[in-house]
Amino acid sequence: MKKTVVLYPGLGVGHLTPMVQLAKVFLQHDVDVTVALVEPPIKAPDFSAVVAREAASNPSITFHVLPQSSSAPEASNSDGTPKHHIVQIFDFLGAMKEPLRDFLRSLPAVDALVIDMFCPDALDVAAELELPVYFFYASAAGDLAVFLHMPSFQAKMTTSFQELGDDAVLSLPGAPPFKVVDMPADAIKDSEAAKLIWRMFERMPESDGILVNTFESLETRAVNALRDGLCVPERATPPIYCIGPLVSAGGAEKEHECIRWLDTQPDNSVVFLSFGSLGTFPKKQLQEMAIGLEKSGQRFLWVVRTPPGDDHKFGEPLPEPDLEALLTDGFLERTKERGLVLKSWAPQVDVLHHRATGAFVTHCGWNSTLEGITAGLPLLCWPLYAEQRLNKVFIVEEMKLGVEMRGYNEEIVKAEEVETKVRWVVESEDGQALRERVAAAKERAVEALKEGGSSHAAFVQFLKDLEAVSR
Ligand code: UDP
């Protein structure tokens, strides 16, 4: 009989988009799939737009919006101060246990539940309903190797990360040496948010397996460390299935003004700057970028957002930027022949795959990283938040598919650095060598996904293992 799985992506575009790609893989393998959606408490317009677009273009996937929980969690602490946004996310998703359970019970048959990393409470629901449960890890295997290790690593630490200091070097299985400051900022503080983050990784081994959005040859060291059980030293590591890269194919935005503009530009000439679904900069940094781009003399396509004010809550939508007021005087006019600035959002995948795009300045979010690699573009790494600094370490030092923008970890990335790196990537021989390395990685990604390739084989193995556990 045909199997049915329910995917539970949690919140946020960066988690939803790859989960929808995963849904398509299930369909290709003749498994029915329902995506159980949670309406984000913060009404981010791009989330609703992404859901609407994905639902329209994937009619074979059932999308079901779970009703709000009857026990909505408090957004404030007992002293009236607002809770940290990560605590709010966990509280909110924790309260969704009941609606998720009721929904799963209402279905005639479910063979497995596949959950996002931010939904560890769904493990309890799966246990109650005796359902096989898998995590879908939508970031690098390298991050997973480091983060799965952290609960036991920290249990043995005699000092806190703060006492160790930002520059202390950590050497862990599956990763090149990296600094404490490369870890997610919210995870290395002594805080409720950090406790919840590490609790999430502590619980991951309770699952029947972890599907990772990567491919083996991209992250050999990390995948081997995970498989060899080195990252969860005192417990059994669940099976790890590297089934990626799962990225959207794009192709829907041919009429967008930036695609039309790219149509008029030479091959591989345009540097694309985009910083994920949430990346923002202060005005001073935007101006510095503008000066650097202008001085570089190169072509560019740049997504600019309004700098958040002091009272802005992370993730909340921002108003459209006033480009004239934000960027240096006359910048738009002076660069209009060779540059285009987009307000707030770009059809990123279509831009990356355009023949005119030649390099990608990225915040190193994992979807953007995979989208850049599968488009064969050299990555200029400018990490901002969450696990992006660690991703940068893997991209630059392990994969050798990018270089860092110096100053990302200081107060400002200077105009000269923007100018130098943008020129370097487009004009230099080393920039060309980097392009060739990414082109080779792109080919390996294509091979991995083909029938018989490592990611295809991993998915087939996962389905076999699921068959065995659900018996
Ligand atoms: N994205 C986009 N247009 C934009 C910014 C982002 O289409 O202007 C998409 C991008 O293609 C990617 C996702 O949003 O699929 C961002 O995910 P990522 O993991 O890179 O970063 P996050 O937003 O989670 O930090």
Describe what this molecule looks like in 3D.
- The protein is α/β, with parallel strands linked by helices and 471 residues long.
- It has helices spanning 13-28, 45-57, 85-94, 97-106, 122-129, 141-156, 161-164, 192-203, 220-227, 257-263, 283-296, 323-326, 331-334, 348-352, 366-374, 388-399, 415-427, 429-449, 454-470; strands spanning 4-8, 32-37, 62-65, 112-116, 133-137, 169-170, 178-179, 209-212, 240-242, 270-274, 299-304, 339-343, 357-362, 379-381, 402-404.
- A 7-stranded parallel beta sheet has the order 3-2-1-4-5-8-9, sandwiched between helices.
- Helix 15 links the parallel strand 13 (357-362) and strand 14 (379-381).
- The radius of gyration is 22 Å and the shape is globular.
- It binds uridine-5'-diphosphate.
- Uridine-5'-diphosphate is lined by residues 13-14, 17, 274, 276-278, 303, 345-346, 348-349, 365-368, 371.
- The site of uridine-5'-diphosphate (UDP) has 17 residues, from helix 1, helix 14 and helix 15.
- GO terms for molecular function: UDP-glucosyltransferase activity.
- It is an enzyme of class 2 (transferase).
- Its EC number is 2.4.1.-.
- It comes from Eleusine coracana subsp. coracana.
Kindly, what is the distance between the CA atoms of the first and last residues, rounded to a whole number of angstroms?
13 Å
Q: What would CATH call the class of the largest domain?
A: Alpha Beta
Bound molecules: uridine-5'-diphosphate
Q: Write out the CATH superfamily name of the largest domain.
A: Glycogen Phosphorylase B
Percent in strands: 5-15%
Q: State the CATH topology of the largest domain.
A: Rossmann fold
- Mean model confidence by pLDDT: 94
What spatial order of strands do you see in the largest sheet?
3-2-1-4-5-8-9
Net shape: globular
Total number of strands: 15
| Alpha carbon gyration radius | 22 Å
- How many structural domains does the protein architecture include? 2
List low-confidence stretches: none
CATH architecture of the largest domain: 3-Layer(aba) Sandwich
GO molecular function: UDP-glucosyltransferase activity
Keywords: Glycosyltransferase, Transferase
EC number: 2.4.1.-
Family: Belongs to the UDP-glycosyltransferase family.
